[in-house]
């Protein structure tokens, strides 16, 4: 079965201060954030089925990447990521779905880390334990190591959720139902929390801290993303015989 991947790219991204959709922000290597994501997805998976959720200035994304399936969030200016993910999951077919925010910049090796869990059809949240900033989505785990809490208001977070996640086929219906019932302004993490609490869904914490990975919200984040990827590329060149 072809791997299904959804990219949430409907929002305005006002904090970055660009006149175009944030996923079309160009990196120092010449690629856009979305272009780099699609390259990494197609390298990691064999003929993946990619869905891109669009809203703000959607024509620009459609023209830049006409070779994917598009899901329209017509209420992109009134809703948050919970409703973009809901539309994406409803558009997919049978099987689990890997999804990512349209503003995450990451090392190509990151998706390779996801493959064992995807192969086992185990729902997961990619996490970074290097930083625990107050304004970011944080997480805790239960005694068995499964994700327990997942929100910006978590106290005593073990790390940050990065924005690359997977829902297994057996868990997808529960997540869809919870995303449908949450408030329009909720992040998708609220739907995940409810599916954990009310439906017994188990999400593993996939630690990606060893790899460069930045969620780009501000110009400073963009600088950090470019610098971290450049530094990692330099290190790889120095260590390659």
Question: What does this 3D model show about the protein?
Answer:
The chain is α/β, with parallel strands linked by helices and 241 residues long. The chain contains 7 helices and 11 strands. The strands form 2 sheets. Strands 1, 2, 3, 4, 6, 7, 8, 9 and 10 form a 9-stranded mixed beta sheet that branches. Strands 5-11 form a two-stranded antiparallel sheet. Strand 7 and strand 8 form a beta hairpin. The protein is globular, with a radius of gyration of 17 Å. The N and C termini lie far apart (37 Å). The model has no long low-confidence stretch (mean pLDDT 93).
Topology:
Blueprint: E1 4-9, H1 33-44, E2 49-54, H2 58-64, E3 69-72, H3 81-91, E4 97-101, E5 104-106, H4 110-119, E6 124-128, E7 138-141, E8 147-151, E9 159-167, H5 169-181, H6 188-199, E10 204-207, E11 213-215, H7 219-239
Parallel strand pairs: 1-2, 1-4, 2-3, 6-10
Antiparallel strand pairs: 4-9, 5-11, 6-9, 7-8, 7-9
